[in-house]
């Protein structure tokens, strides 16, 4: 039951470097008592295997079971959907949560979202967020950005999409990779209006 949770967020992991950002965000959302409707692209599975020690199973059901245990989700708190699961709640404005985060967001998915491709459930869910004028946060990571990438970001930003690049700051003197990851994840949680203790807000004590 969704009423059992504080709210619902759609989270998509795509195949940009920075799988850790998406996984840490998942952990924080679950700890904050939010239900997460999740999708993991095929390329994201490769990136997770490359960048982390997590051995993510191949099917959505197995991913849901694995991640629920790994992050100690409550029963029903985490739901993982496959790339062509068109009957999932995120595929329609009537069923989708009010906020969606693509973290990390590959330039491929960025392009598909900017052009309304809707060729898989991640792209469709983002398209639904756009057409319903709901909160959509994209966390791209590429370097350098091409003019095409920048044009896609500008186009989406002009429609109210939050482009929140995976660009950790250093003014909090991070002493670990985890602290750098938390910098970005804190920014996303701030955008979602979810309380976080990962990073003080500007003007609060930093050290
Ligand atoms: C280890 C690894 C790292 C990658 N890093 C990036 C990256 O930082 N940014 C990016 O846009 N694409 C990156 N890619 C390429 C994307 O995964 C690829 O373009 C893919 O088609 C994206 O598909 P998706 O959007 O469905 O996940 C990476 C791929 C791999 C395997």
TrEMBL record:
UniProt-annotated binding residues for FMN: 15-17, 41, 106-109, 141
Flavoprotein domain sequence ranges: 8-191
Membrane spanning stretches: none
Keywords annotated in UniProt: Flavoprotein, FMN, Prenyltransferase, Transferase
Reaction equations catalysed: dimethylallyl phosphate + FMNH2 = prenylated FMNH2 + phosphate
Top-level enzyme category: transferase
Stretches assigned to coiled coil: none
Highest taxon of source: Bacteria
EC id: 2.5.1.129
GO MF, one example: carboxy-lyase activity
InterPro entries referenced in this protein's UniProt entry, alphabetically: Flavin_trans-like, Flavoprotein, UbiX-like
Pfam family, any one: Flavoprotein
Binding-site positions, dimethylallyl phosphate: 171, 187
Sequence similarity: Belongs to the UbiX/PAD1 family.
Chain's role: Flavin prenyltransferase that catalyzes the synthesis of the prenylated FMN cofactor (prenyl-FMN) for 4-hydroxy-3-polyprenylbenzoic acid decarboxylase UbiD. The prenyltransferase is metal-independent and links a dimethylallyl moiety from dimethylallyl monophosphate (DMAP) to the flavin N5 and C6 atoms of FMN.
Stated name of the protein: Flavin prenyltransferase UbiX
Chain's gene name: ubiX
């Amino acid at each position: 039951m969704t009423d059992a949770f504080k709210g619902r967020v759609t989270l998509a992991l795509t195949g940009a470097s920075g799988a850790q950002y998406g996984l840490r965000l998942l952990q924080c959302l679950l700890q904050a008592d939010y239900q997460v409707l999740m999708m993991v692209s095929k390329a994201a599975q490769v990136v997770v295997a490359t960048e982390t020690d997590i051995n993510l199973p191949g099917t959505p059901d197995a991913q849901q079971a694995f991640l629920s245990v790994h992050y100690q989700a409550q029963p029903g708190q985490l739901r993982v959907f496959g790339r062509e699961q068109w009957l999932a709640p995120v595929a329609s404005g009537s069923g989708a949560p009010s906020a969606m985060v693509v973290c990390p967001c590959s330039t491929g998915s960025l392009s598909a979202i900017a052009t309304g491709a809707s060729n898989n459930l991640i792209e469709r869910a983002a398209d639904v967020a756009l057409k319903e004028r709901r909160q959509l946060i994209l966390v791209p990571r590429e370097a350098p950005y091409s003019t095409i990438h920048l044009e896609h970001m500008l186009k989406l930003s002009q429609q109210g999409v939050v482009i929140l690049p995976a660009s950790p700051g250093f003014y909090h003197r991070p002493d670990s990779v985890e602290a750098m990851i938390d910098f970005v994840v804190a920014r996303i949680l701030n955008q979602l209006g979810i309380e976080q203790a990962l990073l003080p807000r500007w003007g609060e004590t930093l050290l």
